[in-house]
Amino acid sequence: MGTPETSREPCPDRILDDIGGAFGMGAVGGSAFHFIKGVYNSPTGTRLIGGTQAVRMNAPRVGGSFAVWGGLFSAFDCSMVYLRQKEDPWNSIIAGASTGGFLSMRQGLGASARAAVFGGVLLALIEGAGIMLNKVMSAQQEMPIMIEDPVPAMAVGHGFPMGQPHAHAQDGASASGTESGSWFGGWFGGGKKESEASSSGSKTEILESFDAPPVPNFEYK
């Protein structure tokens, strides 16, 4: 139903650890609750004194109650680990039910049964929430991270979309360059280059079409 709880202390030390944690939780939470309650119930002018007095009277009692509950829960949990020889959420559920029933045993069998059911359901909800949170966190850690290589800025021409190759931009630039050269040829010497190219081509054609003279023959007839 779950994985072993590796973040907790081993079983003999777990009892003391849970007692201390439960006492601190009860003392801090009880202090805040009883301070607000004491300030609200005190008369005007003595609200701060009434709040601090309520904290001194009730915070240790609440912390001790939490410590007793945490110690019994850890004791039952360690007992279930020893009996079942494995760590799983069922140990915590059974320990919660046993703790609730044991603490309400003085009030009768019916009250003890109700407290046991309440403790078991509460621990089942807590363990279920912990299992769901662990699954969500493990799924996020195992999810592969897809990293797309960005297109370099030099490979994209101005006025062209991202997917177009840069060759189209170069072809357009060369075409515009030739057109501008023919347009401004008379101004910047482009027309002179074209005339030289045309003249050299005509000379080549003339030389190729010219017939070579016959080779002289020195034989006497």
TrEMBL record:
Output the lineage of the source organism. Answer: Eukaryota, Viridiplantae, Streptophyta, Embryophyta, Tracheophyta
* BP GO terms, sorted: protein import into mitochondrial matrix
- Keywords of this entry: Membrane, Mitochondrion, Mitochondrion inner membrane, Protein transport, Translocation, Transmembrane, Transmembrane helix, Transport
Whether Glycoprotein counts among this entry's keywords is: no
Cellular compartment(s) = Mitochondrion inner membrane
Highest rank taxon of the organism: Eukaryota
> So what family is this one in?
Belongs to the Tim17/Tim22/Tim23 family.
Species for this entry: Dovyalis caffra
Query: Would you tell me the protein name for this molecule?
Result: Mitochondrial import inner membrane translocase subunit TIM17-2-like
Residues spanning the membrane: 66-83, 115-133
Q: Which GO terms describe its molecular function?
A: protein transmembrane transporter activity
Q: What is its main location?
A: mitochondrion
